[in-house]
Design brief:
The chain is of the alpha/beta class. Helix content is about 40%, strand content about 15%. The longest helix has 22 residues. The chain starts with a helix and ends in a 34-residue tail after the last strand.
């Protein structure tokens, strides 16, 4: 056997190994750790609960030292929120202010190697528009601060969006951003592409179902529809895939290809509203986990598992809005699961 043939065989073997490794790396599934409640366990107990259940990623909605500091040294990867109300000062200040903010509010409490994402603002566009002009300047200042710290390759900046920023989401190929947010979304998408970051979206088939029952079936929202919808030769049978792919099409319509989508919130309530039950919450969240672990992906991006953060770790009894908003907890405050879901 010639040396050239042996080299080619080794190369083919190496490529095959890489492909197999890529396929076996599951999309991460994390949990949101909301804290709008007066009956939550101590943060140290929460850490033990998270680790004992094999949960490797957590989303914190703000850099509250009481919640953040206990994660130090645990190996749990974090998405940390920069609250909407902080954006004005971060945008108005210079990079030195952003650097001080990062060091004081985040890096003083947890090592940077645990931080995967900073979610700068949550559902600002259309829902909290006062902060819209401050979003991109705040992100840019924080990015420059991360550059000074040498952390731009490991900590990615983005902003979480509600699905309502799409003016059209069905069929998915018609996905388009609301024209009122395009002036912000276009430079934001440019930033995400240039820095290798992700589009963060909050996806709630539950609310889509209860607000549009004449058009959306419960089975379609819960991943158990037996009827398929064909769009651009792609087959859809659940609302989660349809929503994620609508965002992909919306980005492509703006000229941005290949930006990953991370679902920063998704979940199903166990009580307090139409179709809110333990059974339905298990069906929905269980499918999100399974599809991530199996790298199912979506029809538009098959085989590329969707990284997602399930909402919520616990019920939040002080949340405002509909009663169902208080009942998304996967765990009870005593540490027991509300229903028998597995994360591995």
């Amino acid at each position: 056997m010639s040396r050239m043939v042996m080299k080619m065989q080794h190369l083919i073997f190496f490529v095959c190994v890489l492909v197999l490794l890529h396929r076996t790396v599951a999309a991460p599934i994390g949990l949101c750790y909301g804290r709008v409640a007066n009956n939550l366990p101590q943060p140290s107990d929460v850490i033990n609960l998270i680790k004992s259940n094999g949960i490797s990623r957590i989303r914190l909605f703000n850099a509250d030292p009481e919640a953040l500091a206990p994660f130090a040294g645990t190996g749990i990867e974090l998405m940390i929120g920069v609250p909407n109300e902080n954006l004005t000062a971060l945008a108005a200040g210079d990079v030195n202010y952003a650097l001080e903010w990062l060091q004081t509010n985040i890096l003083a409490h947890v090592q940077p190697n645990q931080i995967k994402y900073l979610a700068v603002g949550n559902e600002i566009l259309l829902k909290d528009p006062f902060y819209t002009p401050h979003l991109l300047p705040a992100i840019n200042n924080l990015y420059q601060a991360l550059q000074i710290l040498g952390l731009t390759e490991t900590i990615k900046l983005s902003s979480s969006h509600a699905a309502s920023i799409l003016s059209n989401s069905y069929p998915p190929s018609a996905g388009a951003f609301d024209q009122n947010v395009e002036s912000t979304m276009t430079p934001l998408l440019q930033f995400l592409r240039d820095t290798g970051s992700v589009l963060m979206v909050n996806v709630y088939p539950y609310f889509s179902y209860i607000n549009n029952q004449q058009y959306v079936s419960l089975d379609n929202a819960l991943f158990r529809s037996q009827s398929d919808q064909v769009d651009q030769n792609l087959v859809y049978n659940n609302l989660f895939d349809e929503t994620v792919d609508a965002f992909v099409y919306a980005m492509e319509r703006q000229g941005f290809m290949g930006i990953p989508v991370v679902v920063t919130e998704t979940g199903w309530p166990t009580a307090g509203g139409v179709a809110a039950s333990l059974e339905n919450a298990l069906a929905y969240n269980g499918n999100v986990v399974r599809r991530g672990l199996d790298n199912v992906g979506t029809p538009k991006r098959p085989g590329v598992g969707v990284e997602a953060f399930l909402f919520d770790l616990f019920d939040e009894n002080e949340k405002s809005g509909d009663e169902s908003e208080k009942h998304f907890g996967i765990f009870q405050v005593d540490g027991n699961k509300a229903y028998d879901i597995s994360f591995s």
